[in-house]
Write a structure and sequence with these properties.
4 strands; four-stranded antiparallel sheet; 139 residues; alpha+beta
Length: 139
């Protein structure tokens, strides 16, 4: 299924080079593996190997790279998607926080807020949400 709301971020040429190197989960707590073929980043769940996102990158005039199209797994037994906005909020932090190792504080806060809002559970600690969705510990 196409991702209707794409990240608007432009990644620098250096960041794109790092994304192309991919990322392999280093332990049971980490949730994502990322690899790139041509100009498509594949984001797979580390435990199951299920492909969740495919993000096509395109060069930006003046430098950098942007996601120009993306698809998300729509089979509920493989990925419980809740909204177009949630897809964007999951896709970008995997690349930013996990692959690039950025703090991505705003993205992580948006993920926590959106998860709480969509689940109706405001009692969940932010660290639990971040670890459950991304495999990250709170900053």
């Amino acid at each position: 299924m196409s991702v209707a709301v794409l990240p608007t971020r432009t990644w620098s040429d250096e960041q794109w080079e790092r994304i192309k190197l991919g990322y392999e989960a280093r332990g049971m707590d980490e949730k994502w593996n990322v690899f790139v073929e041509d100009e498509v980043a594949f984001l797979d769940r580390s435990w199951t190997g299920h492909g969740i996102f495919e993000a096509s990158f395109s060069p930006v005039v003046g430098g950098g790279w942007r996601i120009s199209a993306a698809v998300v797994e729509s089979e509920p037994s493989r990925y419980r998607r809740s909204s177009d906005r949630y897809d964007r909020v999951m896709l970008e932090p995997v690349l930013s926080a996990i692959v690039l190792g950025e703090a991505a504080v705003d993205l992580r806060a948006e993920l926590v807020a959106l998860t709480s809002q969509e689940s109706g559970r405001t009692d969940l600690p932010p660290g639990l949400i971040e670890h459950s969705a991304l495999g990250l510990r709170s900053t």
